[in-house]
User: Which sequence fits this backbone?
C-alpha cells in the first residue's frame, strides 16, 4: 500500500522504501495533532502562534485550574489549525490515591474527524519525580 506521509519518528523500513509511512488519513491526523500539542508557541518557523506547548506545563501543580488552562489552550489551537477535528472531550486523570500522587498527569483527548462517527483518542502521560 502506498503511504500518505512519513511516520515520525523517522524509522527505516526496507519493505516500503526508505522510511515507515502513515497509510491512513486517521494516522496522519493523529500524528499532526500530536505535533500541534507538543510544539511550543514560537517554535515553528514563520508561525509564532502554532502549538499548544504542553511541555510548558510539565512541572506545574496538578490542579483543576491547570486542567482548564490546558483544555482551553488545546481547544484554541484545534479551532485555529485543525478545525476539521471535532473535540468530544478532554479527560484528566488526577491519579488520586496512586503511588505517583501529585506527580502524574494523564490526559486523554477524545475527538473525531468531521462527519466521522468513530472516536479517536490521544493519550499523554506526564510524570515528574519528587525530590
Assistant:
Amino acid at each position: 500500500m502506498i503511504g500518505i506521509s512519513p511516520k515520525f519518528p523517522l524509522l527505516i523500513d526496507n519493505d516500503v522504501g526508505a522510511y515507515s509511512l502513515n497509510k491512513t488519513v486517521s494516522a496522519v491526523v493523529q500524528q499532526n495533532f500530536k505535533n500541534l500539542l507538543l510544539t511550543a508557541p514560537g517554535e515553528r518557523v514563520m508561525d509564532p502562534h502554532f502549538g499548544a506547548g504542553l511541555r510548558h506545563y510539565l512541572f506545574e501543580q496538578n490542579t483543576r485550574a491547570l486542567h482548564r488552562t490546558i483544555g482551553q489552550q488545546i481547544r484554541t489551537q484545534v479551532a485555529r489549525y485543525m478545525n476539521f477535528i471535532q473535540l468530544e472531550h478532554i479527560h484528566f486523570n488526577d491519579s488520586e490515591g496512586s503511588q505517583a500522587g501529585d506527580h502524574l498527569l494523564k490526559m486523554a483527548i477524545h475527538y473525531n474527524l468531521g462527519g466521522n462517527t468513530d472516536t479517536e483518542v490521544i493519550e499523554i502521560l506526564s510524570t515528574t519525580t519528587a525530590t
In short: The mean pLDDT is 85.
